[in-house]
Design goal:
2 copies of one chain form a homodimer. With 267 residues, chain A is of the alpha/beta class. Chain A folds into 2 domains: 180 residues, MoaB/Mog-like domain (Molybdenum Cofactor Biosythetic Enzyme, Chain A), CATH 3.40.980.10; 78 residues, Alpha-Beta Plaits. Chain A has 10 helices and 11 strands. Chain A has a 6-stranded mixed sheet, sandwiched between helices. Chain A has a 3-stranded antiparallel sheet with strand order 9-11-10. The model of chain A has no long low-confidence stretch (mean pLDDT 93).
Chain lengths: 267, 267
């Protein structure tokens, strides 16, 4: 199991204009790989705010920090300068990132998506990485992702357009994460019970205390007139192998089902 | 204009199981009332993590802090004890909150939603508020929201079930926010331009510098084969009246349209 923090960057999120689905995708993606996401923060396109969050995260020392947003060509895409500032490193143009950009713009020109593939200053800006940063190719858009191996933490900067972020996560990032953090697994089951949360609370408490390696959570259903309350209970666990995680959750689910039946609840 | 921070509490978010739509709702809700949301944080159901975030937010001293989640009857609903700890105040059973709970459970019993309205210890737990806390009725579920007027900051704790959170925000909270923070307005327009972000960047930069009271942002469209790049530009502004905010954005949009037309771009 590794620990992770996520930093989502973009004014449009805090203005309530855009729903942040990136951190949801990343929470699921990292959990499935054995990661425990401890914190998600959303901040505006403000270099001081971004740098302060990166510094705060580095102090807590998770195994992984992922940022999303702010890698594009416009002036308010400020993630890489802010990360450089937080790390006390200069920004340098990466020949490898520049080559990726050249290749992508040539492809986009050939596909009729752009009319001119010249690396103008705004496009070229996307190749300026914090010193030591390694670019990862963007199979969907243009801005390369950036990977930084720090003393205790792997820092990964992903673009904010969801298709680009997912394209990199499902593409070049998968192998890099496995190399750096190993592989882990997470499994989950859920049960539905016709009861209120307050009624089930004592049973779930006892169960959670006797099963410290399984995470049990109840989710209150919506209150609807003339319908009995329903609670969804989820059980989840990490494991070194998929079979271990699945087995752990499977056994716990059966035990909880029996405990609930013993107390007179149908599942 | 007032400043705000949002704290979202719940393991299910960080496990990637549930998409956090609450902070999106709150970002929009607060922006529309003249609020500037500076930060959203998502943390697990861990009292230390919650208390640390509340303390951090109080140090930054925004006008408003809103928490969502962790107010229910189960043992992992820890927001109020954590807030009490962060404020250095004891938890006390509020007779007003207890009366709200009694009334709600009686209503739910009458509606056939529950079979027994007894205030069991888990139900009664929801009436234990940080000292000085004022309960707000929950028109949808059971847990009252809690309002705390601190020296510089209004702290509001809302439940995590979206319908309950929205019911309180659109109900009893509206008036309280207006009383405490005044009324403000925010308006927005958007334009679409057939161009890449990098190409528009210099025009938008110049425009943003000469219009400091309007926030201009470009949103890169999805890259699709055989389709020209499209950028959506949003302009938004705050105002003391709705008319002032609308007028500010309307004028800026017309000016930007002219600037883009002058540079050969159709909008």
């Amino acid at each position: 199991m590794f620990t992770a923090e996520i930093l989502v960057i973009g004014n449009e999120i805090l203005l309530g204009e855009v729903l942040d689905t990136n951190s949801h995708f990343l929470c699921r993606y990292l959990t499935e790989r054995g990661g425990q996401v401890r914190r998600v923060v959303e901040v505006p396109d403000d270099p001081e705010a971004i740098a302060a969050e990166v510094r705060g995260a580095l102090e807590r020392g998770p195994d992984l920090i992922v940022t999303t947003g702010g890698l594009g060509p416009t002036e308010d895409d400020l993630t890489l300068p802010a990360v450089a500032q937080a790390l006390g490193r200069p920004l340098r143009e990466s020949p490898q990132a520049l080559a990726m950009l050249e290749r992508r713009y040539a492809e986009l020109l050939a596909q009729g998506i752009i009319a001119d593939a010249t690396l103008t200053p705004p496009r070229r800006k996307m190749a300026r990485l914090p010193e030591g940063g390694e670019p990862l190719p963007n199979p969907v858009g243009t801005a390369p992702a950036v990977l930084l191996r720090l003393e205790r933490t792997l820092l990964v900067c992903l673009p904010g357009v969801p298709e680009e972020m997912e394209g990199i996560a499902q593409g070049p990032l998968r192998e890099r994460l496995a190399q750096a953090l190993g592989t882990g697994y997470h499994a989950q089951r859920s049960l539905r019970v016709q009861a209120g949360e307050a009624t089930l609370s004592p049973i779930l408490q006892t169960f959670a205390r006797t099963h410290p390696d399984v995470y049990v959570k109840s989710h209150a259903g919506r209150v609807r007139p003339n319908a009995r309350l329903e609670v969804r209970i989820t059980l989840s666990a990490y494991g070194d192998t998929e079979a271990e995680a699945e087995d752990r959750v499977q056994k716990a689910t059966e035990e909880l089902r029996r405990a609930l039946a013993g107390a007179g609840f149908e599942t």
